[in-house]
Amino acid sequence: MRSGIFTQGTRTTRWAAAGAAMVMAGVLAGCGSGSGGSDSGTLTAYVYGDDAVKVQQAAVDTFNKTSKVKVKLVSVPGTDYVNKLRSAMGSPSAPDVFFNWGGGSIKPYVDSGDLVDLTSTIENDATLKDGFLPSIMTAGGLEGKVYGVPMRGMQPVMLFYNKALFAEHKIEPPRTWEELQAAIKTFKDAGITPFALGGSDKWPELMWMEYLLDRIGGPEVFRKIQDGDTQGWGDPAVLKTARTVKELIDDGAFGKNFNSVDYGNGGAPTLLNKGKAAMHLMGSWEYSTQLGKAPEFAKKDLGWTAFPTVAGGVGDPANVVGNPTNYWSVNARTKHKDTAVAFLKTMASQTYAQALVDNGDVPTTSGAASMLSGSPNPQFATDQYDMVRKAPSFTLSWDQALEAQYATPLLTEISKLFAGKTTPEQFVEAMKAAK
């Protein structure tokens, strides 16, 4: 399925990223300096095969009408994408352009010089420089350099809530940590789980850590870690984040059985739409999940808002975390760099952005706001777009931002922290020691 916000397959694309990084890392030794797999008149582009491919295929068809070098789109089924890319990148038939998740998923290629650094190209091209939201462009890069151009929709993490429950108990969605704590008490006293959490899947727990660290210490703390300094886990803000998570668990914010609740099979979303949980911190695809599982609830009683502020924190309350988008990157071995860049520029066009909207996505282009009236839920799409547009920083989900050698133990250690099998201090030491 696709990686947009209005279908339920987003999670497959989103959470394949850590595995992609792991497999990509293993192939670098096999990458040579050959021709990049294109003949004299063809540029090959690998894309994750799901329902959104029709949007990319239409863009290719349009581009090929005027380009001497033709783009050949290779749609690889999602379940095979990682292995197919791995095999191709280790052969003379490597793609010229390929779909990725940015961050850690491309770091091995960056380290080995196998990607085109697009920083100066974008800086000197008005279409690329001004065509996308700045936070999106930055989020997919590494160490201040840009290696990809956005090519699908945005997926920020948002705080969803059951409007009927909030109305019944006469409270507003929490904007501050104090209001959040008050809401937890109100719903607990009423026998309602304050927050749904699919703890058995591990990754939903990650979102709490991401937002808390951003609000407490600002995006710079994780940026240091992403850039390769594991001692960054020793920052005091990380320990405070872990302690805050423990306080939430001890306060019963997630109920008693969250470690046996899943997301993938609908456990956590069902708690929210059945009124058994009041809130749910989740990626923007939660809307499409609810629309599929409980359409009346999605249309009438599903609310959304930003993550609350944390008293004493230095992070900008407008910052967001999650999955900025997916990106096209260019193989340094391509014979057709100019054509590849020309094709990437079409991602900034109004025509392409409209095609994304028509397919249920919220584009990452600078001028997309005026197009969102045609979205399945214009208000949700507009609120989501404005949230990202106004964000000074958009932190890429940690398990995508880090290479697999760090992302895998990260998910394990976070799961242990949430399960009470390790202390906040032990979490910090374990991550500092990750190799």
TrEMBL record:
InterPro entries: Bact_solute-bd_prot1, SBP. Keywords: Signal. Residues 1-29 form the signal peptide. It comes from the Bacteria. It holds the Pfam family SBP_bac_1. This is Extracellular solute-binding protein family 1. It comes from Streptomyces pratensis (strain ATCC 33331 / IAF-45CD). The lineage of its organism: Bacteria, Bacillati, Actinomycetota, Actinomycetes, Kitasatosporales.
